[in-house]
Amino acid sequence: MIGGVLTVSSSDEMVERELLCSDPSAQRYRYLMDFLFIINEINRDPARLPNLTLGYHIYDSCGDPRKAARSVLQILSGTREPISYGATVPSLSDRVMFPYFFRMVQSEEEEYIALSKLLKYFGWNWVGIIQFSDSSASRDHQLLLKYLSREGVCAEFSIKLMEYSDENFKKNIERRNIIEKSSTSVVIICGDISSSTSDELGHIFDSIRKKTWIFSSKWLYQQDTMHFMNILLNGSLIFLPNRFNLSSHPKLRDFYDNFIPSKYPEDKLLEDIQMWQFSCLSKDEHKNDILETIYYHALYNCSGQEKLTDIPNYLNLYHSASLIHAVDIMSVALQDMGNFLSIQTNERIRNNHNYNYQ
């Protein structure tokens, strides 16, 4: 049994004491499809887990920490070693604190090492740094300064943009003036992407549009839900993990195209994707009412043949390779455990047999 916790939907305010999961991301739903695809491929391979069928439990955290923690605890009740396909927090590399945690992506720290070397290679030794007020920005900022100094790269300015409000408006104007008067042509962005951070960048866009922006790879994770970021990101430099080549899994595209509502009418998350992405009516009148009355989203009758691959950005390959490899490695570990137990069992039987007949 393999468990997975993915963030497909967004969490909304509590409705009647229940968490409302809404606006599912098609790009992140693809990771669930990748999960199902590799599970099916493993079960079809007679050499993998012979005489066994690999099962799974998948949970949508809806981006809510409470729901995510509850889902993880449910999974850990039957699975000991978690493998992450997207966690990049540097502290997770601490083998003392997290001895049984594994991941398929490099730490953010590795990314800043590479970034610092890239700056040195191009002779960009005079840069500006913008950080936000989110929890990760300070950590990212400290890591960045650490590795910039190692490569002899200096920061002309390092400013923190505050969330837009009347109180912070004057402070952000002052910070924008600092950027406009700076001589550097390269600006590095620290922190996670969110609607507030993108708004903050939008307010200073005119000040730095002639400069080269550098973003970390995590900014791509919300690309499908923040279309207006494309304007801000245009012409910038961004780090990207290795992309997954569809040609290495020719069955994958067919798997996506055949996962349609008419074949999987009981898949409620797929139904939500169809409602949000194709404006399809659901059989659930309550869900229809919520989407039409709360989110003002007009719905219509659909054919049930709508393909996921017709959704813009669905084929964005950001985490697919890491997720598929994570599930694949977990299945190999289960296979090795099964082989080991089989050897141990046979050894005990042989020893008992020898003992009985000595």
What can you tell me about this protein's structure?
With 358 residues, the protein is of the alpha/beta class. The protein has 2 domains: 149 residues, Rossmann fold; 131 residues, 3-Layer(aba) Sandwich (Rossmann fold), CATH 3.40.50.2300. The strands form 4 sheets. Strands 8-7-9-10-11 form a 5-stranded parallel β-sheet, with helices on both faces. Helix 1 packs parallel to helix 12 and helix 3 packs across helix 4. It starts with a strand and ends with a helix.
Keywords for this structure?
disordered C terminus; 358 residues; Rossmann fold; 2 domains; two-stranded parallel ribbon; 11 strands; 14% strand; 46% helix; alpha/beta
Looking at the structure, the CATH topology of the largest domain is Rossmann fold
Give the rounded overall mean pLDDT. Answer: 78
Q: Would you state the CATH class of the largest domain?
A: Alpha Beta
Helix content: 40-55%
The coarse overall form would be globular
The fourth-level CATH homologous superfamily of the largest domain is Response regulator
Lateral arrangement of strands in the main beta sheet: 8-7-9-10-11
**How far apart, in Å, are the first and last alpha carbons?**
41 Å
Specify the structural class.
alpha/beta
What's the tally of helices? 12
Describe the largest sheet: 5 strands, parallel
Number of DSSP strand runs: 11
The assigned CATH architecture of the largest domain is: 3-Layer(aba) Sandwich
* Contiguous runs where pLDDT drops below 50 for at least 5 residues: 349-358
Strand content: 5-15%
Q: Evaluate the radius of gyration.
A: 24 Å
Order of helices and strands: EEEHEHEEHEHEHEHHEHEHHHH
Number of domains: 2
